[in-house]
Design a protein that fits this description.
heterodimer; A: 113 residues; mainly beta; globular; B: 109 residues; six-stranded mixed beta sheet; five-stranded antiparallel beta sheet; 11 strands; 0% helix
């Protein structure tokens, strides 16, 4: 597609439930990134996929967080047993080369109640 | 997670004024980038800097890559209402970007 697409745009979930967030990168972009942005904060790196290489998971805050990507297409970020501190905007970005910066999606706003 | 120190945190200025914000790090970066985020949107790339000492302009925006490679600044000249938003610096670390804490800019007519 023309840009990075994320769904849903908003998600309200009950504490303890699992959620799945989806990202459709720009076609042909080999790199895909997930970031978390808490209210009034900067962007916190979560995970990075590059082609078929093993993902860089160094930013995942706990084992409740996981992400998958099939080839160079869609990625899914899963948060299990959600907690209130998981409330944030989750941003996905894709890039043909990190050297030239990323293109971000509009994000998924997750609210855990 | 790791973040860059960005200042000021917020700015309230009048239309037509010039704006300056900066970003510092304890680490050396090979690439610095500046992004702008509008409400409800993802950040959009404004300027990319690839060489220490480099000064780059994009319209009313000017950014510099510090000589030490540990800092960068962004200037906006003659601000207009649509400059409102959050500005983030980012430094490249291996294959990922580390983002600053953001500067929230408000422009009053």
């Amino acid at each position: 597609g023309a840009g990075v697409s994320q769904s849903p745009s908003n998600k309200v979930t009950e504490k303890g439930k699992d959620v799945e967030l989806r990202c459709d990168p720009i076609s042909g972009h080999t790199a895909l990134y997930w970031y978390r942005q808490r209210l009034g904060q900067g962007l916190e790196f979560l995970i990075y996929f590059q082609g078929n290489s093993a993902p860089d998971k160094s930013g995942l805050p706990s084992d409740r967080f996981s992400a998958e990507r099939t080839g160079e297409s869609v990625s899914t970020l899963t948060i299990q047993r959600t907690q209130q501190e998981d409330s944030a905007v989750y941003l996905c970005a894709s890039s043909s080369s990190s050297f030239y910066g990323y293109t971000f999606g509009s994000g998924t706003r997750l609210t855990v109640v | 997670g790791q973040q860059l120190n960005q200042s000021p945190q917020s700015m309230f200025i009048q239309e037509g004024e010039d704006v300056s914000m900066n970003c510092t790090s304890s680490s050396i970066f090979n690439t610095w980038l500046w992004y702008k985020q509008d409400p409800g949107e993802g950040p959009v790339l404004l300027i990319a800097l690839y060489k220490a000492g480099e000064l780059t302009s994009n319209g009313r925006l000017t950014a510099q890559f510090g000589i030490t490679r540990k800092d960068s600044f962004l200037n906006i000249s003659a601000s207009i209402p649509s400059d409102v938003g959050i500005y983030f610096c980012a430094g490249q670390l291996a294959d990922k970007l580390i983002f600053g804490t953001g500067t929230r800019l408000q422009v009053f007519p």
